[in-house]
Amino acid sequence: MVLWDFPMGLIGILLGSLLVSLLIEYACIALLWPDEGAAHSYRVMLAESQWLSEGYTRSLLMSAPVETVSRWVHVAWQWLFVDSGFSGWLQSFKSLSEKGSGLIPALNGVGASLVSWLEVYLQATIWVTLIFFIRVMILFLSLPLFALVIITGVVDGLVRRDLRRYGAGYESSFVYHHAKRFIKPALYGPCMLYLAWPTAVWPNLLLLPSALLVGAVLAIVTGSFKKYI
């Protein structure tokens, strides 16, 4: 049951982060940068792609990370927006609204304005989705960093626990139970913040503090675990 809950929870976190990032982008288009429209998310996508290509030239998880991830992103683009017919539908819908059917010419201009307004949000949806995929791949390539910090935190906590055990240190479950509650927030919170961030952000600016926070919490949890089981 636990093995089933983890992938379902991970999928829920990813879908929730994508939904939040789309809603934030829509709100920013309507309120903060109406003149830029979908061009803002397009520039963010270019910046994230550049950071991916420059910062992840080598990885422990794959031999050619940039080429492999670029191919995965291209496959996602092809499947979501080209093979699904979304791009073709958007283009044909725009052309139809501009030409008009001739039956109600007065509504032709209204339809063109409506489609032009919707087109900004639909294009932003495409770019934000690609940004999301790129950031998910960056998180995937950053797994060795999290694994290293987690192992270091656990080992440090076990050493301090043994020192407390053999040195007749003070035993209290208060710190353990309260620190244990912060494991999931420390792990999921910064990652969700990174996936939903509306502007271009250097990955290490959020991922490195997130990994250090997880390691610190695990060190406190294992270090404050009871001395005798």
Write the layout of secondary structure elements.
Elements: H1 2-31, H2 38-55, H3 65-82, H4 86-99, H5 106-141, H6 143-166, H7 174-180, H8 183-196, H9 203-223
Helix pairs in contact: 1-5, 1-8, 2-5, 3-5, 4-5, 5-8, 6-9, 7-9, 8-9
Write up this protein:
With 229 residues, the protein is mainly alpha-helical. Helices cover 79% and strands 0% of the residues. It has 9 helices and no strands. The chain has helices spanning 2-31, 38-55, 65-82, 86-99, 106-141, 143-166, 174-180, 183-196, 203-223. Helix 1 crosses helix 5 (106-141) and helix 1 packs parallel to helix 8 (183-196). The longest helix has 36 residues, at 106-141. It is elongated, with a radius of gyration of 24 Å. It starts with a helix and ends in a 6-residue tail after the last helix. Mean pLDDT is 76; it is low at 101-107.
Describe the structure concisely.
This protein has 229 residues and is an all-alpha fold.
Helix content bin: over 70%
Radius of gyration: 24 Å
SS field, number of helical segments: 9
Shape: elongated
Structural class: mainly alpha
Uncertain runs are: 101-107
Strand content: under 5%
User: How far is it from the N-terminal to the C-terminal residue, by CA?
Assistant: 25 Å
**Average pLDDT:** 76
Major pleated sheet? none
- How many strands? 0
Element order: H for helix, E for strand: HHHHHHHHH
